[in-house]
Amino acid sequence: MTRWHDASCQVPSVVVESDHTPKCQNCGRSCPSVAELMSKQASKTSVLELPPDEPPGQMNLWWPKCVPYERNVDEPPQQKSSPTQQPPSPSSHSSPIYGEALKSDEFRLACLSAVPNKDAPIHVTLEVYNDDDHPEYECASYTWGGEDGDSTLCCPIYVGSYWDVLLQTKNCSSLLRFMTPWRGIRLVWVDALCINQESLVERAVQVAKMKSLYQECSRVIVYLGEDMVTDSECFPKPQSLDSLGQMHPLFPQHHPLHELHLGPTEILSQRYFSRLWVIQELIVSQQAMIRIGDVDFRANAGVMARPSSNNKWSSSPAPWIQLLAHGSIPVTGVTDIVNVLRLTAQSRSTDPRDRLFGVISLLSDSTIRLHLAPNYTLSYQQFCVGFFAYLFLVGGEHWFLWHAGVVADLRSKTEISMPSWIPNCRLDTSWQSVMTIASAVNRPQKIPALGQEKAFRPSEPFALYRDQACKIRIRRIPMHDHLRDQSRSVDDTVDAATGALLINATHVLSLRDGLITRKTHGPL
């Protein structure tokens, strides 16, 4: 962020010179070049930094709170405070561009005004509104890096009467130019502009309310990049999204897409649809508009419910698109949340914790939303152990063990610190593999309650690894029906310090070659 005026300039009067450089007639200063602005920005990093994993034996597990963690009596959980639980202090995050920090019930809108020509600099004013008192507005849905993934901050966006400079990505700049009206003004919510990205507190509060922001807007503008929109003086043709594939958008003769047939598969294979956060943005929206060539494809719940749409979207690269404008995802239990994660497993996120946190607000079951409430103070280690402990101990799910160290030697060097009953799923590809096992066809049945006749039986022999940190309480299960309930007197838990799974084990299989002890897998 840069204010380029003289410090004594109190009443700026900015004009745009012939080379598109803003200049203040009051103080005589001109805006620095993009190269100068980028050099000042070079010291700032946009790389996500997750809280570091805890040292071995000091995991301090506490999330989710409904999971039974076992700890010493004199060892209370050291729960970290989440930024979303602390309202921002107005005086602590004041900036030249954004002014005072937003209150918890406020949000900003960017006001775009008409410009004389398409080459004019992009200028916006930021306006603050209350959650319950605001004008009609639109929300933008896009990817910061665009289809080529270029997240370099290199394009100036000018803000307010001082024409302060915010450097944005090429795709964000292209989006704002696309949304600039040819007449009048347009009020839009764009995350890169409307949230002070340098205030961690404000970011946490505003990201937590993104669902309501997209629910309340008049429509969501989906921007697939400048290659997907045409530069034409004619107005776009409106069509419903279910006509995609039958209605062929037109591109200029020398455009790379001029002779290509763009159907649902080609469009939904765009990088945009692999971004996890767009799932929330589109599912909770009332209406979405996608510009492709010279056509505005529009969609709402009615369009997506048409019989002609069902088969088209369910087998597409982004099957979740069939839930566009549905408001939420119906969920009645843990099994269903697994299906939701499987549905969105192909989506990518910079923060691996967002694979869950990015969709949890969409679930209609308030109990599950409360149990798995997002908390970005969690390390990836705490998040991963907590999530799978919830599935296993609360939901009775065990299918993920097929991708864990207790079943096969899948532990990588980078995952040694993770308990071996937790799948290796830090990477997007490994997460997809784990969730593929969770499919309705391949998923094994749940582990039966202790004392039931049917036990877990794999279809073929597999290796079982047990290291020194493993703790298993083995109890002999009485065979008489009236005694079976007594065998459940000790609850299954997870050790809060080591992440070790403490279970009541029954005889479920025979070990043909005996146990193999290994020390490289970490605690079970």
UniProtKB/TrEMBL annotation:
Heterokaryon incompatibility domain: residues covered: 137-281
Protein name, UniProt field: Heterokaryon incompatibility domain-containing protein
Any Pfam family the entry gives: HET
InterPro entries hit by this protein: HET, HetReg/Transcr_Mod
Coiled coil: none
Region of interest called Disordered, as start-end residue ranges on this chain: 73-97
Domain of life: Eukaryota
